[in-house]
Amino acid sequence: MSLELISLENIQEFAQHYGYWAIFLGILLENLGIPLPGETVTLVGGFLAGSDELSYWIVLGVAVTGAVLGGICGYWIGRLGGWSFLLRIGKIFRISEVRLLSIKEQFSENAAKAVFFGRFFALLRIFAAPLAGIAEMPFGKFLIYNLLGASVWAGLMVTLAFFAGRIVSLEQLVAWVSQFAILALVILVALIAIPLWLESRQVKSAAED
Q: Distance between CA 164 and CA 11 in Å, rounded?
C-alpha cells in the first residue's frame, strides 16, 4: 500500500465517511500484524470526537475493542504458526534454532511487560501479540495484559486528541506523537541491544583467553 493511500488526509476522510467502523478496522488490522497507522487512526478518532463529529465514548470503545480483538487474533497467529515461520526466517539469516530458543525464552520471561507496554512503541505494537503467541504465553495471562494495555493506550490517545486537538492542528498532533513513538522505540532497542552486545563481547573475550 502506498504512502499516499494512508496519508493523514485520507485517513481523516475515511474516518469521516465510515465513522466508527473505520477506527475499529484500522486498529484491528494493525494489531493483527498489518503495518497500518493504527495510532494515527486513533488520534483521528479522538480529534473528530473533540470537534463533535463523533462520540468520545464510542470512539474509545471501538478503539479498545479493535485493539483487544486484533491482539487476540495476532496471539493465535503466533501461537499456531509463528514458531515454524520464525525457524524458516532464521535459516535465511543463518540464526540457529538454539539461538532462537534462547530469544524465545528471554521474551517469555518479559512477555507480560511486552504485551502491555508494547502498545506505546512503534512497530512493537504490531509484533507484541504474535510474539507472545510464539513464546507460548498462557492465554489467560495474555488476555489480561492485552486488555489492560489496549485500554490504557486507547484511553490516552483518544483523550489526548480529544483535548489537544482543540489547541493544535491534527497534523501537528500526529507529528508529535509519531516522533515520540519513534524516539521511545530507539531507546528501547538501545536498552536491549547494548547489553546483548556487551554480553557477546565478554563471551568472545572469555573464549579467546
A: 19
What residues have CB less than 8 Å from 47, skipping those under 6 apart?
A: 12, 161, 162, 165, 170, 173
pTM of the model: 0.75
pLDDT over threshold 90, residue 65: yes
Is 62 in a helix, a strand, or coil? helix
Structure letter (DSSP) for residue 92: H
In angstroms, the CA 132 to CA 15 distance is 31
Question: Can you tell me the distance from the alpha carbon of 31 to that of 153, in angstroms, rounded to the nearest whole number?
Answer: 13
Instruction: Measure the CA–CA gap between 136 and 208, rounded to whole angstroms.
Output: 37
Task: Name the amino acid, one letter, at 23.
Answer: I
Residues with Cβ within 8 Å of residue 23, at least 6 apart in sequence: 15, 41, 42, 44, 45, 59, 62, 63, 66
Q: Which residues contact 53 (CB under 8 A, 6 or more apart)?
A: 16
| Residue 139: half-sphere exposure toward Cβ, Cα within 13 Å | 9
Query: In this structure, are residues 31 and 125 in contact, taking their beta carbons and an 8 Å threshold?
Result: yes
Q: For residues 170 and 167, what is the distance between their CA atoms, to the nearest angstrom?
A: 9
Cell 470537534, residue located:
51
Closest alpha carbon to 75 in 30, 32, 114: 32
Mean pLDDT to the nearest integer, 16-35: 83
